[in-house]
Structure formats: C-alpha cells, structure tokens
C-alpha cells in the first residue's frame, strides 16, 4: 500500500470521520464518542505505518491490528474500508442484520478483522498470543492492540501487561485511547487509574506519551516503537472523546449514541467534508428493505396479523423490565444493609435509580469500574459483613465473565449476593452477539445455592427484585431484557417465589392484558386444555399471544405457565401440566434448553412423558446485530413460531 504523507493523512481522517458518522446515523445506534477519539490513531496505523495488503487480507507477514475496545468497531470498519478492504459505501450496512459490520467486530464475518471482540479487557491477551506466535515462527511482523482508558480497569489487562514484559515482546504495541471518559462519567470518578505511565513502566514497558490527535506525533510514536528492543511499547495517547464535532466533544452522553440527521449535517459541516449523504443513506435503506422482506417472508402467516398492537383491539403497553428493577431499588433502598455496586453500565441497567435524586444513599453506591470479576468478589465480602450487595451489569459479563467468582466465592460460600443480568436474549439488538446473553440461564442454574429469577414484565420484575433482595437469604440471579416488552401482569397478579403462574386466554378484549386470566399454579384446576406452553421472561407475552392465535385460528386451548422462577423450579406444576395436556412446548429467549432441558428433566423425573414435546429458543448459535423485534422474528422466537409449532403438534 502507498503510504500517505502527514498532510494526506490529515485530510483522509476527516473523510473517514465523515463516512463513519453517516454510517452511525444510518444505523441509528452505535459508539460515536470513542470511535471519533481513536480515529487519528487508527488511520495513521492503516494508511501509513502498517505493512498490510487489503487485496490479500491474510498475507502472512502483515502487521496485525486488533481492537480490544470492540465497541469502537465503526473506526475499525472505516479504516478497513478506506484502505480498500471493501467499498467504503458498504459501511452503510453497519449494525444491520446479516451485515459484515456487526455492532462489535467479528473476524468470521469480515476480512481484515483480526479478532472478535466486545468484551473489554481481553484484546491485549490475544495480542500477546499473536506476538508470541510471531516470535516462535521467526516472523518480523508487529502486533498493535487498541484499548480504551476505562478498559484499563479490567484486571485481565494487567495480566497481559505482565506477560508481554515477561516475554520481552518488542513486536507488540499497545495503544491506549485516553479520552478520560467512560459510560458512567469521568474515568477518574468511576475508578481512577492513577499514573498510567508509571504503571506501564513499572511493569517493564517502554512508554511513549503523545497527543492522539497530532498526526506527526502519532506516526513518530509508531516508528519509534519499531526501534525499541526487548520491551513492548505502550503508546499513551491523550485524546478527546467525540473529537471533531463540537457538541460531541467531552460529552459522556455521546458514548453510545448515533447522530440524528440534523446533528449529522452539523457534524459534517464542522468537519468540513461534503459527502453524497442521501445516496449513502439509500444504500442503508435498500439493504434494510431486503432484510425486512426476508424476515417477514419467514414469519408464519395466519388469517390476520396478530403482531403487537397491529389490531384495533388487544392493545398492549410496552415497558423495559429493567425499569421494574430500578423502581424496586428506589423504593427499598433506604434499608441501610443495601449496597449497590456499579460496573460502568449504571444508567442502562437502571441500578442508578437506587441513588438518583437520593443523595443520602450516595455512600452506599460503590462504583467498581469495568471490573466484573473483582466486583463480584467485593460483593461477597460486603455480604460476609452483613450487607445486602446488589451487583449488576449485562448478563454476558455478570453471569458469564464472573462465573468462577460466582461459583466459588459467592455460591460455595453461600453469600447473600444479588446479581443482575441485564440484556438477556437477542432482543438486545444492534450491539450484536457479544452483548446478547444466551447462556446465562445454563450458567446460573447449574450452580448449587443459587436462586434464579426470570420475570416476564416490568411489574413482575419489581416484585421479583423485592423478593430477592428482602425475602431470600443467599445468592440470587435476576435476568431481564433490554427492549420494552408488553406489560402482562398487574399489581394484584399473584407472585410467589418458586411457584409458577398459570395464564389462560379468555377471549379478545380491548386491552391485551384483560383477555387473560392468571392464577397461582397451585390454585389452578385443569380445564383439559390441548397443550401447555412453559415460558419465562419476555417469552411469556409471546406465549400469551400464541395462545390467542391458537384459539382464534384453530380452536386450540392453551395452558400458559409463566415460569418466573427457574431455580428452584416448580416441578409439581410441570408434572401436572404434562399429565393433563399431553403436549408441552417450552419458550425461552436463550440458547434452546436453558429452560427447555430443565422442564424436560422435571417431567421425566416425575414419570410424566408428554405425548409431544418441543422447545422454542435460539438453536445453538450466536446472536446477530439487528433490530430488537427483527431479531425476535429472525431467530424464530415470536408468537407466530410458537403458535405454528403448537398447531403442528396438535395435528391441526
Ligand atoms: C467486559 C465488559 N464490560 C462492560 C462492557 C460495556 N462497555 C462497553 S464500552 C464501555 C466503556 C469503555 O470505556 P473506555 O474504555 O474508556 O472506552 P471509550 O470511552 O474510549 O469508548 C463499557 C463499560 C463491555 N463491553 N465489556
């Protein structure tokens, strides 16, 4: 590749920022702030410093650049497109279904992506492995790894820092994009890093500090790093989050937000680049139209459209389940034993509602930074001393990343720790597979002493949160979704930990919720229904809609079991349903089996073998970027698929 000169680089990076902002606008979501702050560092690497060939992405001797900060993917894709790995206009498919430009980089979807990332703090370890392999193979290529400053809070970063120095990896360069902001605010407030330069140096690294927006300094730093022997180099780049757009600069609120059209036009004006914006947006729209056709084409069809709020009657109100969690914290938070631990996702998961507008609780909100593993064990320590700690983040990180800490420290020690797993399921949407928890029910239900809650709407989430915090002594895990989902319970709907609810469709009404009757399962008498659907979480409203479809279209009567407690499981209710209804279908927004396997085992252990059994869930694959409801349809999780399966098993 031809190397760009400094002035050429300075021009190129303006265009790159412009293309990226149009793509982010077309996507309607994405990580704008951090992608803008690292753009100069990335552009210099791809367009001047690195040895690589866009026409031969797998070239053996290429330098490798990997984004440990996977959320800055728009900057990576822009650099790849601008270098010629693909037509830059294709970037307009960013974050769309089946697109190579997933919310976080996936190496199996796009040539030039060296590693699939999105779970912070893992990239430098991968880079250490790649650099070690390069040395073993006696290659002279170099490995570059981009990280955020908030990301430095992950303990794994420092394990890798130690390894790189131990092995004297002078073919490795870490670049830290120091924009001083993360999601919850200033890095220094969330979890202060102290003297980063001194830290890297004391671990045995060569450190170069630069202005991360000065192209000459950036190129010089990369070149200097090439000359350093026997030590890895860290380039500590001082940057501005949201760089180049006045209203985005230094604003934490622009971390994960895309510009609207007016903001985009203003941004392009400030950057000083003219692009054929409407033509570019048309590429995005045309692609989306193609995907819409594909997804709608696969949706089972009935005599009318039963989709949410598509009819004159059966209207449902939508609300995210996590709001119920936040409301509970706001209500019970004056209990001095309660302590909430933040993991830099506080607003998004509503754990901030514990102390928002309640200053007197500030000392009981403890920010742990981006450090899920330590945060979990800190919670255990607090519990040991009589506190009721509540630790929350996205389920992929709370349940998944800290699994061993939860297993050995929390559960084996049987501490009274409450863990929340937000963003369960594919309906997380455009952030994609890395952020869609599809395994956490397996992980948490497999642990002795753990209690597992999967409530179905925001009202039930509030009740479940209350129960887990105040009524249960011992480890608890609560899972909730990101998207607004239908409210299908009321304050007076029964809720008893460990006992399921039975829901029956009684005929269409003006409001969806009024068309159903809900009873505590232990109070329910069989009505000799044709089939049972056992569901949890946001699949409960889908199961209810399926019952509506099955009755209206085929006269099939359905018993819906809202299995809001997965551990302990309500075995009696399952055995009764298996005996009384002959067909059992499970429905979960999770890898097939989290709920389904448990239900099947409970039935068989009770000596009940339903005549027919089926599971609705994600079929042993990772999620995707896409719209929330688009993904629910794409993965076959919506009511239409449940109803189709019910019809098939009932032989109608
Ligand atoms: C293990 C893990 N925990 C949490 C997140 C969610 N998350 C995405 S970006 C981010 C903040 C990152 O801050 P920083 O490293 O400073 O990046 P920048 O501000 O430059 O975007 C967090 C907490 C994640 N992706 N991975």
Brief summary of the model shown:
The protein has 21 helices and 20 strands.
What does this 3D model show about the protein?
The protein is built from 21 helices and 20 strands. It is of the alpha/beta class. The longest helix has 22 residues, at 6-27. The mean pLDDT is 98. The termini are far apart. The relative contact order is 0.09. Helix 1 crosses helix 10 (277-298) and helix 11 packs across helix 16. It has a 7-stranded mixed β-sheet, sandwiched between helices. It has 3 domains: 6-271, Rossmann fold (3-Layer(aba) Sandwich), CATH 3.40.50.970; 300-314 and 496-650, Rossmann fold; 319-486, Rossmann fold, CATH 3.40.50. The structure holds thiamine diphosphate. Thiamine diphosphate is lined by residues 33-34, 37, 69, 71, 118-121, 148-151, 177, 179, 181-183, 241, 255, 344-345, 370, 397, 401.
Short key terms for the protein model shown above:
alpha/beta; 3 domains; globular; Rossmann fold; 652 residues; six-stranded mixed β-sheet; single chain; binds thiamine diphosphate
Could you give the topology of this structure?
Layout: H1 6-27, H2 32-49, E1 64-67, H3 73-83, H4 123-136, E2 143-148, H5 155-166, E3 172-178, H6 187-191, H7 196-202, E4 206-211, H8 215-227, E5 233-238, H9 261-271, H10 277-298, E6 318-320, H11 321-332, E7 338-342, E8 365-367, H12 372-384, E9 388-394, H13 395-401, H14 403-411, E10 418-422, H15 440-445, E11 451-453, H16 458-471, E12 476-479, E13 484-486, E14 501-505, E15 516-520, E16 531-535, H17 539-554, E17 558-562, E18 565-567, H18 571-581, E19 583-591, H19 596-605, E20 612-618, H20 628-634, H21 639-649
Parallel strand pairs: 1-2, 2-3, 3-5, 4-5, 7-8, 7-9, 9-10, 10-12, 11-12, 16-17, 16-19, 19-20
Antiparallel strand pairs: 6-13, 11-18, 14-15, 14-17
Helix pairs in contact: 1-2, 1-3, 1-9, 1-10, 2-3, 2-8, 4-5, 11-16, 12-14, 17-21
Bound molecules: thiamine diphosphate (TPP).
